[in-house]
Amino acid sequence: MDTTGTIFLTPGGSTIAGEVDSLFYFLVYASIAMFGIVLAGLVYFGLRYRRRQTDADTPTSGRAHNLKLELLWSIIPTILVVIVFIWGFRIYIKMHVVPHEAMEVKVTGQKWFWSFDYPQGASTVNELVVPVSKPIKLLMSSKDVIHSFFVPDFRIKMDVLPNRYTITWFEATRTGNFDLFCAEFCGDGHSDMIGKVRVVGEREFSEWLEAGLSGGEGMTPEDFGARLYVSKACNTCHSIDGRSLVGPTFKGAFGTRRVLEDGGEVTIDENYIRESILEPQAKVSAGFQPVMPTYQGLLNSREIDALVVYIKSLK
Ligand code: CUA
After folding, report:
1. Would you list the domain boundaries of the chain?
2. Average pLDDT over residues 241-263
3. What is the CA(199)–ligand 1 centre distance, in A?
């Protein structure tokens, strides 16, 4: 299997990748060949028939047509275009017809992270975990603006829209981590809307599912909170080093007074953090946009507890 990649393409990681790549290379090399032929003709005829000083009065040839030549330069490109169309259409159909046995994962895009809901009940943020060599159907929608789900190594990219489902699928051919990007400009945090697809063996997937359904066992609440801070993408908008990103920093926030957008004031305590996670628009800090999405349904109460402990610890 090709895992090295080329100057043009990253190494493929899905069943469709090889076919997409073949078509891509056909287009590239056919274009280079055509370019070479046209350029060579241009140079040759330019030199061969250039106007010389001595024959300034010689009239140019009266020849106006050459049927054979005209047929040739019409038919060859037409054949090429038909080949590319049929080839591309066959791949397009394959990419759009989801195999019946596919496992369905619900994908939600929102400013600025991805969340994934599995049929077994687990959910993740910014990390899609799937078993290798199994078709995965992605049922996708957005909570706000248009995003686009793009995994270069799998050669799949599909827009994710509000108020409507879009569907794509893939079957990973090898285990490993694959980059996931948002490929539609969606605002301030667009460039941070990145995640990964982790492809694991069948057994590891079942184990992960079981662990994912519980989660955080054997960790202190603070460590669990620190992990959630990254895995649930809080870090996209809230720093822990004092910098203001899209949202206020967590550093030294606990216990302080905060001025709100509506002029009111609040003490940052456990209840304020909990409320801000579940109902972010209820009390927005002054100087920040009310853009945080609710984490209702994305975090259970143990996870919220852990995040509260973690935020408290950030002095
Ligand atoms: Cu979401 Cu760009």
Report:
1. 103-214, 221-313
2. 89
3. 23
Examine domains 103-214 and 221-313 and report if their fold is the same.
no
C-beta atoms surrounding 163 within 10 Å: 7
Find the helix packing angle between 301-313 and 221-231, rounded to 10°.
Answer: 100
- Helix ranges (H only) for 49-172 are 67-96
| pLDDT one-digit tens code per residue, 143-184 | 999 999 999 999 999 999 998 999 999 999 999 999 999 999
What would the CATH number be for the domain defined by 221-313? 1.10.760.10
Whether 193 lines ligand 1, by a CB cut-off of 6 Å, is yes
**278 close to 294: Cβ distance less than 8 angstroms:** yes
Cα 167 to Cα 147: distance, rounded to the nearest angstrom: 13
- pLDDT 10s digits, 66-108: 899 999 989 999 999 999 999 999 999 999 999 999 999 999 9
Architecture of the 103-214 domain = Sandwich (2.60)
pLDDT value for 221: 83
184 lines ligand 1 (CB under 6 A): yes
- In short, whether 185's Cβ falls inside 6 Å of ligand 1 is yes
How far does residue 292's CA lie from ligand 1's centre (Å)?
14
Q: CA distances (Å), 108 to each of 121, 123, 126, 152, in order?
A: 15, 11, 10, 19
Q: Which atom of ligand 1 is nearest to the CA of 146?
A: 1
Q: Give me the residue label for tokens 């108020």.
A: 163
CB count within 10 Å of CB 42 equals 10
pLDDT score of 1 more than 50: no
This prediction has a pTM of: 0.71
